Amino acid sequence: MTGGAIDAHVHLWDLERFGLSWFRPELGLPRAADVRALAVAAGEAATPVGRVTGAIAVQAADTVEEAQWLSGLRDPLVAGVVLQYDPEDRPGGARSELAGRVRGVRVAVPARRPDLADVAGIDALCDRIGRAHGVVEFLVRAEQLPAVAGIAARQPRTQIVVCHLGLGAAEPDDSWEAGLRAVAAQSNAAAKASGLVTAADPAGDRLARALAVAVDAFGPERLLFGSDWPMSARIAPYAAVVDRTAAALPRLGASGDEAFWGGTARRIYRL
To answer: Which helix (H) or strand (E) holds 181?
Structure first.
């Protein structure tokens, strides 16, 4: 796949087919976030490198039914799939192996200990996915970033990706910055600039600071744009997320734009 932008972080689901343990009506999210709706939303956006031509769909919850549905999607817009890690899933399980469009596994553990010592099997997972040339993603809070840096150091042959810069809606303070830079010091680590647009930051100052740190730490060759759609749609339309991200970014130059908005994702996820 070449040309256009890649959205490295979207979620797709259909509650008529399976449940999401965290879903509640008051969250203001649709019961179905499907590829057609994503195509309409993304079709209204223009990144510095053109329209969005592909997306990485990250499993929103953790059931086998959801993983099977997501893995079975056949649409050109779904360039790759990342499934949720379950420490109880054995090798060969639906959420532990790479096949078809599955490009990686996400370890979503922000509620766990800062050192991640209470998450079973991380090194075995990284070794297995690394041997298959896949990606291991981490959804963590800022205090856990040093632990992710340690994992990346122990697993140098595995591509590690931090979702939402390890920040999400939190403030980009000195502790977060130190943790992110520790991850960036590992050459096999990258990070998604996703889930960063918030209602409390209309002027984009917080977003600009976070992106400035990330660009300085990783460089655009190890950073990926992600919209976090449809979670982000509660705050701003897809096109506005793209525009606010582009406005807050430091100047990257033509090659940097190509990397951040698509090239890094194509390389890392083997699109």
So the answer is: helix 174-184
Q: Going by C-beta distance under 8 Å and a sequence separation of 6 or more, which residues neighbour residue 72?
A: none
Per the DSSP assignment, residues forming a β-bridge with 84 are 106
φ, ψ of residue 108 in degrees (nearest 5): -100, 100
- In 97-226, DSSP assigns E strands to 102-108, 135-139, 159-162, 189-193, 223-225
Domain that holds residue 47: 5-268
CATH of the domain at 238: 3.20.20.140
Tally of domains within the chain: 1
Considering the entire predicted model, what is its pTM? 0.95
Query: What are 106-161's pLDDT values in tens digits?
Result: 999 999 999 999 999 999 999 999 999 999 999 999 999 999 999 999 999 999 99
Of 124, 116, 117, nearest in space to 93 by CA? 124
